[in-house]
Amino acid sequence: MIGRGQPAWKNPQVVLTLTLVFCCGALAGAVIYKLTSQPVSAKQVAASWKDTTKEQTLKNLKKELNLTPEQAAEIETALDDFSLYYQMLHAQMEEVMATSKSRIDQVLNEEQRKKFSRIMNDLKDRQIR
Predict the structure, then answer these.
(1) Quick one: pLDDT at residue 36?
(2) Per-residue DSSP letters for 67-129?
(3) DSSP 3
(4) Minimum mean pLDDT among 6-10, 36-40, 51-55, 105-109: which range?
(5) Do 54 and 79 contact (CB within 8 A), yes or no?
(6) Distant-in-sequence, close-in-space partners of 97: CB < 8 Å, separation ≥ 6
């Protein structure tokens, strides 16, 4: 209980409510930002990372940087590790986004869910272009 003359923001319920609202807003903002941003991303690089691309990249680096065979092997390993790490990170990000969407859906009523679904589909369509 809050005593008389004590500010309302010192009430633990008020602080908790404000914190939850802030966190939900930050989460929703992060999800929307992720879905609307259109970077030339490592996602595209990793998705197109084929053996021929890797071989060409290594060939160019060897030539431009005068790499020794040992350096080239280390760089190849680093690039492979990056590709694997990115793929794992991307899978985790998709899981977080799906979980966030599910949590948001639980808060919304049926009409809001339909609108939210349309908004998300529009964002995905813009991202594809």
Answers:
(1) 66
(2) --HHHHHHHHHHHHHHHHHHHHHHHHHHHHHHHHHHHHHHHS-HHHHHHHHHHHHHHHHHHH-
(3) P
(4) 36-40
(5) yes
(6) 31, 34, 35
pTM: predicted TM-score of the whole model, two decimal places = 0.42
Positive or negative, the CA dihedral 36, 41, 43, 45 is positive
For the stretch 54-62, contacts whose Cβ atoms lie closer than 8 Å and that sit 24 or more positions apart, written own/partner, are 54/79, 54/80
CB atoms closer than 10 angstroms to residue 123: 16
The structure tokens listed for 93 are 């990000």
Q: Tokens representing 7?
A: 């500010």
Task: Please give the Cα distance from 31 to 52 (Å, whole number).
Answer: 34
Measured CA to CA, the distance from residue 127 to residue 40 in angstroms comes to: 11
Rounded Cα distance, 90 and 95, in Å = 9
